[in-house]
Design brief:
Helix content is 51%, strand content 15%. It is of the alpha+beta class and 383 residues long. The structure holds flavin-adenine dinucleotide. Its EC number is 1.-.-.-. It is an enzyme of class 1 (oxidoreductase).
Amino acid sequence: MNLELSEEQEAVRRLAEEFVAREVTPHVVEWDRGENVDKSIVRKLGDVGFLGLTIPEEYGGSGGDHLAYCLVTEELGRGDSSVRGIVSVSLGLVAKTIASWGSEEQKRQWLPRLASGEAVGCFGLTEPGTGSDAGSLATRAVRDGDAYVIDGSKMFITNGTWADVVLLFARTNDAPGQKGVSAFLVPTDTPGLTRRTIHGKLGLRGQATAELVLEDVRVPATAMMGAEGKGFSLAMSALAKGRMSVAAGCVGIAQAALDAAVRYAGEREQFGKPIASYQLVQELISDIAVDVDAARLLTWRVADLVDRGQDFATAASKAKLYASEAAVRAANNALQVFGGYGYIDEYPVGKLLRDARVMTLYEGTSQIQKLIIGRALTGVSAF
Ligand code: FAD
């Protein structure tokens, strides 16, 4: 693996850094306090091509490889994880899955709109009763002529109240021994689909996380993505790539923690000297720095495997597991460097810690990543 960025990759990273400084950083505290990122950010993300990364140009995408995608995701995560999550879901979990598994008609219908930011996508897998055990979901889609009628509910759906389309997973077959989950692309203005924003999140407060309720939601049979009964494997393949994106976002959080800790330690004086001159403060900073490097290398390795067409699922679980735990540690260490000032939101590190915490929970908790890695190593499923 070549660890040197190409000119193109460095240019896209710089573009993302500048975008964040201009469009995100000035609003971070306001969006976090108000629990609301300004939705106009979506169009801006589309205009610079970030919502079309890795999507072929013939479908309105901006191309690029997965390392470029990770670099942009890292910079967005360094700026604001709420904004990063919009891209990780609308592009990472929805558009990229349509590009891999969608019919020609589905690609033409959704990809140009998702890549430009004209439309937003959300990923509807989790339900009130099923989180880690996603395969036992209860939302049901029943065939009725040339349509499916869907009933059920979805919980914790990122972009849920903003989205124009939900990549929805529903049970189409109950026969014993059948993995009867199928995937559907459901426009969110379909009658019978209602949404409720979930307020009071610890972190990612700017993000529109929602509960979706589906009552007699009728979609044409052509809304099914992939073959009937293949929805669960489709969801797992989307999440494997999604974990790379979460890991990159976590690298961004850890890098932001490092930047803030180094800057503050140089400015803040106690006992007549900058706190950077104390060995115990340097220990906190060096621990963050090692976590940043290790998490970034694991993440880039996944991008490299994806770009070379090799198996990447276990590497993605390792990167997501390590980077999410590292982001929590890094933000917590940075908060310690800030002392009491770290505990108020005029300073950046408290938000980094709140945002980092969910990374060990979604797209598979840390325990679930360990079970995936353990199964790959031993050949035994411990789920
Ligand atoms: P549970 O599965 O109930 O787990 C509870 C605890 O039990 C955890 O510690 C878990 O690790 C442990 N556990 C469970 N099973 C095992 C086992 N076999 N062995 C060991 N330990 C186990 N979902 C979507 O579909 N789309 C989204 O866009 C989305 N966005 C989200 C955004 C936010 C802010 C949050 C908080 C969640 C989001 N989720 C989304 C849902 C998320 O993926 C789930 O919360 C996650 O999968 C965990 O499920 P759960 O919360 O039901 O926890």
